[in-house]
Amino acid sequence: MTSERPNSERTLAYLATIPVDQVKGVGAARRRALEKAGITSVAEFLMHTPKRYLDRSHSYDIAAAPFGEETTVGGSVTSFSRRRISGGRTMLEARVTDGTSNLRAVWFNKYMNDLDVGEEVLLAGKIDNFRGSRQMSSPDIQRLGQESMKTARVVPVYPAVGGLKPWAVMRAVDNAVRRSLPITDVVPESILTDHRLVDRTTAFRDIHVPDELRDVGPARTRLVFDEFLRIQTAFKVREHDEYENQRGVPVVGTGELTRRFRAQFPFDLTDAQEAALESIRTDMAAPTPMHRLLQGEVGSGKTIVVVLALLTAVEDGHQGAVMAPTEVLATQHYLGTARILEGALMAPEITDPRAAGTGSLFSPTPSVSRPVRIGLFTGSRVTVNFVEGDIGRDQGLAWLADGTIDIAFGTQALIQGDVELRSLGVAVVDEQHRFGVEQRVQLRSARADGAVPDLLLMTATPIPRTLAMALYGDLKVSAIMELPAGRSPIATAHVPEGSTGDARTDDLVREVVAEGRQVFVVCPLVSDSDKIDARSAEAEYRRIAAAHPSVTVGLLHGQMSSVDKASVMERVRCGEIQVLVSTTVIEVGIDVPNATLIVIRNAERFGLSQLHQLRGRVGRGEHAGRCLLVADESTDEAAARIEAMLESNDGYFLAVKDLEIRGQGTLFGDAQSGVADLRLADIVRDADILEVARTAAEQLMAQGRDSEAIGAVMEEVGLFHGALPEARGLEVES
Question: Which residues of the chain have pLDDT under 50?
């Protein structure tokens, strides 16, 4: 199979060029079946690893095997039969002997080829006494067809793939391994030594044909390391290519605006906020562009850190832009910042539009004491905090271009089309907005002088460190892991859907409204559906309005026009709407301090991170918040999510739980194919190996971007992982 290449050139990349039907035991029909399963080459076949192992060194003679315990026995088949039994089921029966004792094995409705008399097998399961004889019911079976497997101490058990039964996979992979080794390593020996890793030949040999069970661990560690190394190296290369040679906008700041802000702000920053701010300022002062992710718990104070970063840019003579995925959220950011500036006595007085441009930071003698001017750009409307009412878009764009507006809020349209900023220093991008390659290019062209503004992404979805490394490998990460003083945990309860859920919801609505507080009720659907049995926002709105005629009830969902959504949110903010029935459009960024109760209908239909984000919409003021999960625990996953929500308010704990429950493949989705293609690696279980791989990727990059080692690893990235994940927030499926 590999005779045309000398041993020194048998790389994994080379084995990826050899069709899988070159392996003995894989003909044309099996090749087609394997290709449908995604296995097209010898390399991919080698990466199809055993799901477990049978250790013959710890197997028993049949007579000595204990009853009622998991055990492994081996022997030869003396008879095999299949027959129909009651209920239309099929029973398979095999008699096995080890030369001194006999065992009966039975399976029900199991699809398995007939066993041959004299065939050697291993059986794993529990032995029971059945009518005076030893019997195993539905044991795992491994057929030892090859001579090598008959004498092996450790026998691999493979998952079926492409129509091949586990025993056939074992034979084919064994042939592939023995004819492919040795495999040239792409990782320098010095790095393997530093991290106590076995070489690639040893890894593939011991994962498939180990001499001892203890050999499997180091082999698996190396192969997991390889998967993580490819991803981390690709991130490092992309970081180098995109940012190493770019000229940034060094922002140092005078400290005058930020000192004024902090002097008037009623609270001290937490230690975590201070640390995050210091990291951001250090990045902003560098000659290369900042590329940082700011993550933190709901209510951890990310907004204050972002405002201070924006003010640092403003006091240094630059502008800031805050981009959100929706106009509703952009409006929320704008209003929140306006309130913060007003509270810090830094908001401008409403003035005549004709005088609004005076005192620009870009005037010859800018006044440090002047207020900070911000603007909101949504569709054809522009709102600023220094002119009453909406202004025309043309006027707003002119004030952006001449520097009158210090900080602009909007969607990604802020860096597209006819929008021109006088001197963009830092762009802040909200978590749910996918800021991919195209948007990076637009950001790089946002300044006429060719300099690249700083980029700060923010997420309210707490992310475990290892998950952040996998999703945001080319980002620096700042985490705010502590809550400001005074924030109380949100009391969470669960009731089943249906009439019980309706009654409990109505009781709490009456109680909370009587206290003068507000309520959010969240539903998974906008309208009733014939296909999905779940509560819709429209139906719940009608039900609550009918049940509480004296209460003002509002409705909000994503199918409403921008004008209608803005109107509803304004009525909620001013307290006119007492109960807001909504879809998940309120999941992120909605800040109503008077809201103290959120009811989540059909909570089983939401992901754990999404449930946590929704819960964080209440209890943001002086009064404690409550969350009612109305859910049918219809699946084990749904029950686990509800249990986790009842157990903890800690977003980082819940983020790890979410990863454990849903699995990394589901979490990343199709757009994160670079990580979803991990075969062996698990981000939670293998967190320590991911750390090692990140360090090793840095060691490889230290040898040079164009080094042979980097080239070899990047070749494997293209072959086995495809496109890399884009830096982005987690999009949680409901």
Answer: 2-3, 352-368, 432-434, 666-676, 725-734
In eight-state DSSP terms, residue 412 is: G
Domain 256-285+300-459 falls in which CATH fold?
Rossmann fold (3.40.50)
Spell out the alpha helix ranges (H) of 152-251: 166-180, 189-194, 200-208, 216-239
**Tokens 């195993």 belong to residue:** 136
Using DSSP, state whether 30 is helix, strand or coil: helix
Angle at 410 between CA 405 and CA 415, to 5 degrees: 80
| Residue 165 backbone dihedrals phi, psi, to 5 degrees | -70, 160
Q: What are the extents of the domains in the chain?
A: 1-51+158-184, 55-154, 256-285+300-459, 491-648
Domain at 55-154, CATH homologous superfamily: Nucleic acid-binding proteins (2.40.50.140)
Q: Are 468 and 683 in contact (CB under 8 A)?
A: no
Distance CA 714, CA 310 (A): 37
* Type and span of the H or E element at 155: strand 154-157
In single-letter form, the type of residue at position 414 comes to L
Domain 491-648, what architecture? 3-Layer(aba) Sandwich (3.40)
For 468-506, write each residue's pLDDT tens digit. Answer: 666 666 678 888 877 666 667 899 999 988 888 899 999
Decide whether 256-285+300-459 matches 491-648 in CATH topology.
yes
Cα–Cα distance for residue pair 506/424, rounded to 1 Å: 50
Report the C-alpha gap between 128 and 580 in whole angstroms.
61
Which H or E run includes 73?
Answer: strand 70-84
CATH of domain 1-51+158-184: 1.10.150
